Amino acid sequence: MTRYIYIKKEPQTEKINVNKGNFVKHLSFCVLLLGFIILTSVFYPILNYEFKSRRFSSRLVSPIKVLGEGTTIVDYSRPNSWFPTAKDLPPKSSRITHYSLSIPKLKIEDAIVHVGGEDLMDSLIQYPGTSLPGHYGNAVVFGHSVLPQFFNPQNYKTIFSTLPTLEKGDEIFVSFDGILYRYQVIGLREVLPDDVSVLQQHYDSEYLSLITCVPPGTYLRRLVIKAKLTRI
User: Fold this and answer.
1) Does 64-230 carry CATH code 2.40.260.10?
2) Contact between 123 and 137 (Cβ < 8 Å)
């Protein structure tokens, strides 16, 4: 006589619920991992810069300016807001309004520098009243920076993002009024936004100063790359 044994099948809905629960767990893990990667990519360049810059000032300055009872975000696309206490320098007489700047190490090639310009989103800007390239004094050029992973040497919003990687001896080329000038980096330093000494003119030689904001992606301090004209 044949006997049959019946085994009750588990409800399929439970398996579906189990699979759904595993999917939710994996999705949560992926979201957390993605969030960690994003936070790391934002804060690591800043912390790394701070630890490597022990020779610079460690004092921080808020990028927010408080005016009366309200708070206003400073427009850093305008060069006059980088050193708010700086006095206007006497303008230099010149028919040249634009020239180009190249930094081979940073793959910056023929970037446009606007003499006395108003918008750092469109070009590099030479601070008005500072000496012109090839002349005795100090030509001071401002440029924007962001987190280094977004660096694009052809985008003026990010063009100076890797400026902190320059070292003494690195070359900077300026093409001004049909003449090519070669500068070599002689020093790097940080200053606070109220230190206007970097705009001063010293006429013992021909200097070039490149300035951007640091740490990367912030407006807390100013990095100054000082270079001196050399003969090609």
Assistant:
1) yes
2) no
Give the residue carrying structure tokens 């900077």.
172
Quickly state the pLDDT bin for 23 (edges 50, 70, 90). low
48 contacts 148 by C-beta, under 8 angstroms: no
25/2 Cα distance (integer angstroms) = 47
Cβ atoms within 10 Å, residue 147: 18
Q: In the prediction, which pLDDT does 93 show?
A: 76
The neighbour count for residue 186, using CB atoms within 10 Å, is: 15
d(CA 191, CA 58): 10
pLDDT(213) > 90: yes
Q: Which two three-digit tokens encode residue 223?
A: 């990095």
Q: Which residue has the tokens 């390239």?
A: 133
Sequence-distant (6+) residues with CB within 8 A of 13 are none
Helices (H), the chain: 12-52
Return the number of other C-beta atoms located less than 10 Å from residue 101's C-beta.
Answer: 26
Residue 45 has what pLDDT? 56
- Planar angle of CA 133, 121, 139, nearest 5 degrees: 15
Does the N-terminal peptide bond of residue 215 adopt cis geometry, omega within 30 degrees of 0?
yes
**pLDDT tens digits, 216-226:** 888 899 999 99
Domain ranges of the chain: 64-230
Span 169-198, average pLDDT: 96
The structure tokens 């049959």 sit at 4
β-strands 70-73, 64-67 pairing: antiparallel
